[in-house]
Task: inverse folding
């Protein structure tokens, strides 16, 4: 047990395993248990959560890679408000398989993802805990060392969600500043977003973004698949395996009102 400032006591423990075979196959697995009463600067957003997962990476060739991953997140004793908002359910399970192939300046990615939800929490945003079964194809093309173009097509095979086409561009005017713009074309409308990230040092990063979404009639919207709003935030890299993120957002609704 580990005591904290408010005299509450909690438990937290975790284990991870990494292995590599024949310099072509890599395995990573982990288990974390963080009691609702356990608190440190790096676990506040994970209180009351149990996490289990594994990942396998197979280098088929120097230019082709296969990735398989499975992650399970569960609330412990209902968690806390922050973890409830994050999951939107008592338990979520996500499986992913991805194939990546590099052709000099062109990078091709094919992905299959399945998300399952157990006991959705009805009092929170239902878009967080949606059951989906999707495939996606993506192409990234590097114009030069500073600018990359991308196009992605997502298809929903089963469950909630919409088919989407995404066009994007990422630019690095300096080594520490990254600018990106993205246009999402979905069945219920379009969304345009712009983001900026500035690396202050090796561990600290500032972020900001702005998104405008409209439905097929040209009206601003805040649907489950297309959100309007802006945000500012920061990221702090505690160590190689832990990154703290915080953000303040302002989102718009269909009637023009705003929420934070």
Result:
């Amino acid at each position: 047990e580990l005591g904290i400032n408010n005299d509450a006591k909690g438990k937290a423990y975790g284990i991870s395993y990494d292995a590599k075979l024949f310099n072509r196959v890599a395995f990573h697995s982990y288990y974390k248990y963080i009691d609702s009463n356990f608190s440190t600067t790096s676990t506040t957003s994970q209180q009351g959560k149990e996490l289990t997962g594994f990942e396998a990476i197979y280098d088929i060739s120097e230019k082709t890679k296969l990735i398989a991953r499975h992650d399970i997140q569960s609330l412990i004793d209902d968690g806390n408000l922050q973890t409830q908002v994050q999951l939107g359910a008592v338990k979520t399970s996500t499986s992913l398989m991805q194939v990546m192939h590099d052709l000099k300046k062109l990078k091709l990615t094919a992905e299959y993802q399945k998300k399952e939800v157990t006991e959705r929490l009805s009092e929170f945003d239902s878009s967080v805990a949606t059951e989906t079964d999707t495939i996606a194809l993506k192409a990234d093309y590097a114009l030069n060392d500073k600018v990359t173009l991308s196009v992605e097509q997502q298809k929903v095979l089963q469950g909630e969600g919409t088919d989407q086409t995404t066009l994007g561009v990422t630019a690095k005017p300096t080594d520490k500043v990254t600018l990106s713009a993205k246009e999402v074309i979905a069945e219920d409308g379009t969304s345009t977003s712009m983001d900026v990230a500035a690396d202050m040092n090796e561990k600290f990063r500032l972020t900001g973004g702005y998104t405008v979404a409209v439905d097929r009639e040209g009206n601003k919207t805040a649907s489950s698949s297309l959100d309007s709003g802006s945000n500012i935030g920061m990221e702090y890299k505690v160590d190689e395996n832990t990154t703290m993120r915080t953000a303040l957002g302002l989102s718009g609704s269909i009637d023009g009102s705003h929420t934070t």
